[in-house]
Amino acid sequence: MIPYHRTPQPTLPSSAVKIIGLGGAGVNMLERVALDGTEGAELLALNTDVRTLSACVAGEKIQLGRDLTKGLGAGGDPELGHQAMLEAETEIRDALRGRRIVFICVGLGGGTGSGAAPVITRIAREEGAFVVVFATMPFAFEGRRRREQAETTLNELAVLANALVTFDNNRMGELVLAKQGIHEAFAAADHMVCESIKAVIRLVVRPGLINIGLDDLMSALRTNRSRCLFGSGIAKGKDRAASALRNALASPLLDQGALLKAAQTVLVHLCGGEDLTLYEVELLMQRLQKFVPESAHVLFGAVVDPAMGDSLSVTLISALPEDSLAASPRATSSTAETPLADSASSAAAPPPLLPTPAPEAAPPRDVSLDALPAAPAPSKPRRTPAAETGIPSLFDGGDAPAEPATAATPDPAETAQPAARDSAVSAAASAPIEDPLPEDKPYVFKPIARSSIPSKAIWGRSPSPDADSASDPDADPTPAPQPDPFSAGLDDEAEAPKLKLGVKSQVPQNELSFDSTPRGRFEGQSPNVVDGEDLDLPPFLRKKK
Amino acid sequence: MARHSKIHVGLEIGTSKTCIVVGEVRPDTAVKILGIGTTKTAGVRKGEIYDFPQARACLKDALVKAEDASDVEIGSVYLAVTGAHIQGLNSRGTFRLPEGQSIVAPEHVEEARTIARDIHIPPDHVHLHPIIRNYLLDELEHKTSPAGLYGKTVEADFHIVHGIGARIQNSIRLVRETPLEVDDIVFSPIATAQMALDHEQRERGALVIDIGGGTTDYALYLDGAIAASGCIPVGGDHVTNDIHLVTGLPFSKSEKLKIMEGDASADPSRSVGMAKLVDDRGFAEVEVRRSILNEIIRQRLEETLRLVLQRLPEDSVKSIGAGIFLTGGTSLMRGFSELAYDIFGRDIYRPEPPEISGVQASFKDPQYATAIGLIRYAQILETERAAPPGLFGKVSRLFWPFGK
C-alpha cells in the first residue's frame, strides 16, 4: 500500500517532491518555506481566497472553488472548502502527477484547510505519492467548533496520509516569550513547521553517507495512533555537535528530550558541511544516548552537504503511542469501561470519530481485509464511519460533525477501495489506543495563560472530565498510520501497561541512596552532602540521572 | 627589626602529601628556600587526619628529608590546617564613643574589635584567625586604627576564620608528638594567598583557589583585605575516585590516567579517541575513551569551582580586578584554566612566587604554594611582632594587612 520501493532512494529528483500549502495558514507556512529556501522541491499554493493566493510567492498556485466561492474564502465552512477542492480536482491531479513525495501544510479548523485537506491527501495518494501532512491545530481560544472541525479532519488525515505531524498552536507559547509580539509567535510557529519540512526533505532527498530513507522515516513513525516527536537543531562553531543536539531537544515537541525516554524507535539524522568529523558524530550520539532508552531502535543517518557550511544540523524524529503519555492503569477495566464512556460521550457530543479501545480488534493486523470481519466487534463501529466516509468524502452527506453514527456497522463494500483503503482500515482497527477515562490524564501541560477557557489540554488530554473532550482524544495527536498493518494492533497491547513513560512530572525522582552506591575511596565516611548532593559521588554519574 | 637571617619552617599536612619547607628570611626581607621535604601522605582524607600513626610516620619522613635538604635542625613550624569544618565569615563590630569624647582612644578601637570578634560560632568551634579587614570611622574607611582621630562611631570589620577546636588541636598534637613546636596555625588558603598575591593584586581584588588532593581552599581579597575564605572538601582525590567509580579501573591506574591523559577544558577536539596507559613492556593495559575520561574530570572540577563561586559573596566576582590565581596540585590538570575561565569569566593566572630565591624547580610547582606561603606568613608575622613602631611598621603593613 505504500507506493514506493526501497531501491531508488538515494537520489530523488527535485521534481519528485512537492510542498503544498493549503488554505490561509498553509499558504503562510509555504511562504515561510519559500523564504527560508527549499532545497529541491516544488511549491504549490492552494487556496480559495484569491487575494492571499496572489500575494503568495509560491511557484505554482491553484485557486480552489473558482465558481463556488468566486475568489473569496471558504468562510470557515469545511463543506465549502471540500466542494471547492473537488471542483479543482483535475487541475490538482495534473499538478501532482508523478510526484514521489508530497508534503501538505495545512492549518486545521478553518474552511479551506479542514475541508480540502482530506481530499487533496487522497488525490495525492491516488497519484502514487508518499504523503506527509503537517497540520496545525487551532488555538484554544478559537472555540470548540473550530477545534472539532480540526479534529474531524485530523482523524481523516490520520487515516489517509502516510505520515502526519501535528503542531498545536497552543504550544506555540513555548516557542516564544509571552510578551513577544503575536507576529513573532506565528513566525516562530511557521518556522518550526518549516524546519520540520526541510528536515524531512533533507532526510529523504539527500543521498546520505549513511542513508536514511522513507522506510526509516516510516519505521520511526510506526507506532500506531501516535504523537510525533520532532526536534531539529542547528549549530555552528566550537562544540557545535553538543549545541545542535541541545537545540534539537529544545523543541517543544520533545519536552527537553524527556519524551524520548519512551520512544521505541528514534530516527537521528545529521547533516553537516564538509568538515563534519566522525568524532562530532560520535560525541553527539553519545549525548543522545542519555535521552534515548537503551532498547530503542536508533535509525541513524548522516549526510555531508557542502551547503551547510560550517554548521551542523540534527533532526530527531520519533513517535510516541498516545496512551504512553497518559498513565493508563486500565489493564483490566478497559473492555468493560470504555464502551460505557464511549456511548456516553457519543450521546453527548457530536464528534463522530470515537476511537474505541477494542483489544479484540488487534487480530486484523495480518491482512487488512481481515479487519473487516473483525470490525463488527461491538466497540468498533463508531470508528468505522469516519474511516469509511473519509475516503470518498466526509462532507458528502451534509454536516458531518452532526452525524456521529451514520453507519453503525461497517460497510462490507468498502473492501472495494484502493490502496489507501488498507491503511484506513488498519488504522481504524488499531486506532483504539485512546483511553477515554478522564481521570487517566495526568499529562496536562499548563494551558498557556488561558486556563479559563475550557480548552482541550494540549496533546488532546483534557484536564476536565467533560465528556466531549474526553471523547476527542485526537485534539492533537500526530497519528502516523502506517503502511504495514503488522504492528498496528500490537501497539496498544504492548503500550497499555507502560505507564507514565516520558512524562516529566511523573518520572519518579531518583534518590541518592547512600548505602547502595559504591563510593570508592570514600566508602564508609560520613556523606559529604552539599545542597542535597553527595559530593563523594562522581558528578558524571549524578548529573546523568 | 631583625638584623640577622631568620629561619622559618612551614608545614602542610595535605591530603596527598606532607610538605615541609624551610625558608630563610634575610635581613632585607628576601626569602630564600633552603630545602623542601615532601612525602606522600597516608591517613589523611579531605584535609583531615583520620589515621594518626600513619600521618605521624609521614610527617617524620618529611621532616627528615627537609632537614637533610636544608641542613637545618627544625625545632618549630608554622602549621597550615584545612578541612571542611573551617570557614571564614565577616563580622563588623560597632562602638559608639561615650558622650563628651570626640577623639577615638585606643581602648575604643579595642572595644570595637572585641565586639566584632564576639560572634556566634558553634560551641565546639574555635577562632583560628580574627583578621582585621579595615576600620570605619563614621562610615569612612580607614586602613589603620583610627585611634587619635576625631569621630563618633568606630567600627571594625573582621574576617573571622573558625573551625572545630578538637580537630585543629589534634593536628597540633600530631606535630607536637613528632616532636616539633607549633609557632602558629594558619588556615591554608590564607597562607597560599601570602605567596600567590602581592599587595597590588589584593588591592585590585583577587581570588586564590588552591585545589589540592582532598580539598579546595579559596581566599578572596577585595580592596586589599580578605573578604571570604573557606574550604570545599573536594579535590584531586575525588577526580581519581570518580574515574575509578565510572570506569572501574583501580585507583593507581585512575590516578595515572588522570595525570597523564586527563583534560578539563571540554574542548571536543581533545576528547577524541582512546586514552591509553602502557605497562612496562609497552602493551596497552588500560584503555578509556577520552571523551568519558574528560567528561568525568570536567564535571567534577566544574562542580567544585561552581561551589566556590556559590560561596563567594554575591557579585564579588565582578569586583575581582586582578584575576583568579590557581594553585595546588590539581590545578596542573590540562585545560583547568579554560574551565576556570568558563566559570568565573575573569583572568586566570598561575601565581609566581615573587622575590624568593632558592631551588627554583621546587617552588615553581603549585603543589608547594601553601607551604611556601607559610614562610611568607611567618615572615610577615615575625616582622609585625618584632618591628618597633615607625617607618618599617608602616611598610610592613603592605605585606601584612591583618593587623595585630
Could you characterize what this model shows?
The complex is a heterodimer of chains A (545) and B (404). With 545 residues, chain A is α/β, with parallel strands linked by helices. Chain A folds into 2 domains: 380 residues, Tubulin/FtsZ, GTPase domain (Rossmann fold, 3-Layer(aba) Sandwich); 33 residues, no CATH class. Chain A is built from 17 helices and 12 strands. In chain A, the strands form 3 sheets. Chain A has a 6-stranded parallel beta sheet, sandwiched between helices. Chain A is elongated, with a radius of gyration of 23 Å. Among the domains of chain B are: 76 residues, Dna Ligase, domain 1 (2-Layer Sandwich), CATH 3.30.1490; 153 residues, ATPase, nucleotide binding domain (Nucleotidyltransferase, domain 5, 2-Layer Sandwich). Chain B contains 12 helices and 19 strands. In chain B, the strands form 5 sheets. Chain B has a 6-stranded mixed beta sheet with strand order 11-6-1-2-3-19, sandwiched between helices. Chain B has a 5-stranded mixed beta sheet with strand order 14-13-12-17-18, with helices on both faces. In chain B, strand 4 and strand 5 form a beta hairpin. In chain B, helix 4 crosses helix 11, helix 6 packs across helix 7 and helix 8 packs across helix 9. The C terminus of chain B is likely disordered. Classes of the chains: A alpha/beta (545), B alpha/beta (404). Chains A and B meet through helix 10 and helix 17 of A and helix 6 and helix 8 of B.
Descriptive tags:
heterodimer; A: Rossmann fold; 6-stranded parallel beta sheet; 4-stranded mixed beta sheet; B: 404 residues; alpha/beta; Dna Ligase, domain 1; Nucleotidyltransferase, domain 5; 6-stranded mixed beta sheet; 5-stranded mixed beta sheet; 12 helices; 19 strands; disordered C terminus
